[in-house]
Every structure is written in structure tokens, then in C-alpha cells.
Amino acid sequence: MRRQSRETSVALQGPCSCEETTFRDRYEVLRTIGRGGCAEVQVAHHLLTGAEVAVKVLPKVKGKAALSEASVMRWLDHPNVIQLFQVIETREHVYLVMELAERGPLKHIPPGGMRPEEARRVFRQIAGAVGYCHGQGVVHLDLKLPNVVVDAAGTCKLIDFGLSLRVRPGQKLRWCWGTLAYLAPEILLRQEYEGPPADVWSLGVILFYLLAGRCPFKALLRSGMVRRIREGRYHIPDRVPPQARSLIRSMLSMDPARRPTVEQVLQHPWLREGEEASPRQDGEPPPKRPDPAIMAALLDLGHDPYEAWVSLTRGKFDDAAAAYLILRHQLSQGAGCAFNGKPVRPAHPSDGSVLPRRSTSELALRACPSACDHRLPQEAQPTGHKDLRRASLAGTDLRWLPQRTPAPAPAPQKPSHSRKDTSTGQPKAWKRVARTLATCFRQLCCCESQSGSQEGAPGTREPKRGRGRARVAPM
């Protein structure tokens, strides 16, 4: 059985996206960090901003099935879900450019398990990400420890949405896929099942693994593991806290209807013990205004800020949107980040929408002057939204980026016969740039009233789903 194509497709690059050089024009591959199935994960250098990113390289397949993962990820925005930056399609591959989690997968658990406090902290983040996905109508269907990565700050991020689906409440699924050790019994029994309870079962396996240091259904042979899962036979070590044991048993219930929802899991007394509130699970509405600081930086980098914002509001993952998202991610990492990017030439130099690029030493991400830093009404303040990361960073300390060095004052010259003004005011070129930026912001203000009536927020249509091919990954 084959999945039907999604109604919601991910916008790709322009006419030159068919060339394999398209990716290399924008990114420099540094190393390969993982391989699995038909995909390869690389670390690459974003030439425009200097940021290191993760790139998942998928072979081009019949139709656009390789884009299904991006079609799901475009709906998601959560601090514990990996951020998608850009999608590039070439003749042979699809490149998914994403946030890089420097510490890698969460798969090296101590033999006796983590300390309960650490396991609780990690599991809350994983469950919070899954609960958010369920709230967006997305089921992961391949939850396992290798699909959780950790960034430099120690934050867990959910990855690999290659098997994920958008589903309706109560929708039944029939296909069988995933990793055997984490599969729910109803899937192994080839029954119709609902996605959220199957994800909850996988979360129960993850929590068991974190606390015990091993799989709950471990067996010498694959057939033995299948039998244990179907019968629900496992033993929780005595060292696991009693309240954690009760939570594991509820999630590993043989009856899917008796399993708690992820929201109920997060309210369990053991998870709430000694922890601050979990990360937000609800999506946020699209911001009504762009971040002035990042829009100014986009102008420095040679992108039209107006076009970048249109791409973001329409859910396109093109060059301009990628630059915006990567810059915002860099800012969120704090003052310790270094900016060492360099402008790159556009694919089409004749494109009038691409503004003249400045040299690397001139690039600076800065807040706009008070004249253009409008004080928005409360309802228009950018508080974040579903399809983009958290919004305004205008108040962030931006001194970690190299600032423009003022040019030395010109040497005095003798008056000439020309009446041209030789004052030391702002050069005309900079005046043109300032006018261009002001025009872009005026265009944004005008287009928002039109887009509010003509287009909904990104990702308002629910794509159709078909039936998938049976796939079970080895342990």
C-alpha cells in the first residue's frame, strides 16, 4: 500500500533547483554524522550566515514521497522539536536543512539507567514534544531513543519524521512500521489502531529504558521479543521509583483505550515532582510583524526583507526564509555564538529583487532605529506562532555580531569649480539602503491586511492521507 501525496506541499527552490550544484552553492559539507535506511545526515556550513546546520539527504524517488517528512515538519514549532530551515530539491536528491544538535543522539544510557531526577527531566522534554505534535494532529510512529538528539545546552530535540502522519481524531491506521522494540502490540497483531496511543506505548518503552538502562521486552531472538510484546510481559527493576513504575505500567497497557494521553502523562505526580512547568505544547499564532533586527540583517546579507517575510508567512522554505530562520536560531543561542558568514552570489544575478550585497565586515544584525521600531498594539505584538520559531528578538543583545567599522573621514580637499556638496553626511548609497528598508516595512504593513482576508495562517489545510507500506526496522 502506498501513501497518497499530501495536499500541502513544501515550497522548494526556484527554477534552478533541478541542478545538483544548487545545494553546494549554498552549503559546504563538513562531515557525515549518520546513515540509516536510504538517508544520510551531514553537518554543513551555511555560506551566507556562517552557521553549522544538519542536512538530511534523501534520494529522489518516484513522485514527491521524499518530501513527506518536510510536509509534516512545516507544521511544527516547539523548543523540543528540531527546526526545519530549508528544503532543496535537485535532480537526484532532496535536502532537508535543519537545526544542528551538537551532542548527538540520546542513545548512550548507563547500564543501570539514569538517576531518576535526570530521567524525569529528559522524559518531560520528550513527552512535551510528542504532546505538542499530537496537538497539531501529527503522530510520530517511530519514537525511540536514537530519534532524540541533544543540543549544546542539553535540550532534547525530537527528530526523524519520515514515518510521521497527520491524522484526524479517531482515525484508524492499518500499516505496520517502526522499530520492533518500541512497537505497540496492536501494530504487531496487525489490527487497526490509532496513532496517539501507539506513540504513548513507545514513550513507555523510552521511560523504561531511561530508568532501567535496557529494553523492557529484551529477548535473544526476534521472535521472542515479538512474543513478549504481544503478551505484555516485562519486569520493572526494584530500583525504579514506585510512582515511576505506575506511570510505566499505565503507558504499557495492552488495551490502547486504557493508556493515558500524553497530556495526562505530563500531569502524573512523578513527572511534576521538583520540576518547573513543561515547555509549551500549544502552537502559537503567526506574528503580525517581522523582527526588525533580523529584517535589517537580511538586507545586509542581500535579501529583500519583504520577500523573506512573504516566504515565511506562506510556509516556503527557500533561501530568504532559511536566512531568517537561521539568524533567529543563532540569536537564540546567546552571546556565545560567532558570526563568520559571507555573502554568496544569487542564483540569478539579474533578479532585481536581490539587493546589492555588502562585504563581510559590514554585516551586522542590529535593532532598527526608533523611527522604524514601531510600538505595536498589544494584540499585534509578535509572541510566536505555529510555523515559525519564537518571534521578536529585537531586545536581544546583538553585540556578538561584528559591527560595521566607521570609515575614516576623508582628507580635506581644495575647493573645485564644481558646486557639488562635499559634506561628511551619510553616503547616498546608505540613504538608498535605508529608503529600501523603509519601503519593505511599508509593504509588509500593507500586505498583512490583504493576506489576513485572502490567506489563512500557514498550514490551515489538512492534507489527505493514504495507506502506507508495511515496514518494520530491525533493532
From TrEMBL:
<feature type="region of interest" description="Disordered">
    <location>
        <begin position="266"/>
        <end position="293"/>
    </location>
</feature>
<feature type="compositionally biased region" description="Basic and acidic residues">
    <location>
        <begin position="270"/>
        <end position="291"/>
    </location>
</feature>
<dbReference type="GO" id="GO:0035556">
    <property type="term" value="P:intracellular signal transduction"/>
</dbReference>
<feature type="region of interest" description="Disordered">
    <location>
        <begin position="396"/>
        <end position="428"/>
    </location>
</feature>
<dbReference type="InterPro" id="IPR008271">
    <property type="entry name" value="Ser/Thr_kinase_AS"/>
</dbReference>
<dbReference type="InterPro" id="IPR011009">
    <property type="entry name" value="Kinase-like_dom_sf"/>
</dbReference>
<protein>
    <recommendedName>
        <fullName>non-specific serine/threonine protein kinase</fullName>
        <ecNumber>2.7.11.1</ecNumber>
    </recommendedName>
</protein>
<feature type="compositionally biased region" description="Basic residues">
    <location>
        <begin position="464"/>
        <end position="475"/>
    </location>
</feature>
<feature type="region of interest" description="Disordered">
    <location>
        <begin position="450"/>
        <end position="475"/>
    </location>
</feature>
<keyword id="KW-0547">Nucleotide-binding</keyword>
<dbReference type="GO" id="GO:0005524">
    <property type="term" value="F:ATP binding"/>
</dbReference>
<feature type="domain" description="Protein kinase">
    <location>
        <begin position="27"/>
        <end position="271"/>
    </location>
</feature>
<keyword id="KW-0418">Kinase</keyword>
<dbReference type="GO" id="GO:0004674">
    <property type="term" value="F:protein serine/threonine kinase activity"/>
</dbReference>
<dbReference type="GO" id="GO:0005737">
    <property type="term" value="C:cytoplasm"/>
</dbReference>
<keyword id="KW-0723">Serine/threonine-protein kinase</keyword>
<comment type="function">
    <text>May play a role in sperm motility, especially in the regulation of flagellar function.</text>
</comment>
<keyword id="KW-0067">ATP-binding</keyword>
<dbReference type="Pfam" id="PF00069">
    <property type="entry name" value="Pkinase"/>
</dbReference>
<dbReference type="InterPro" id="IPR000719">
    <property type="entry name" value="Prot_kinase_dom"/>
</dbReference>
<keyword id="KW-0808">Transferase</keyword>
<comment type="similarity">
    <text>Belongs to the protein kinase superfamily. CAMK Ser/Thr protein kinase family. Smok subfamily.</text>
</comment>
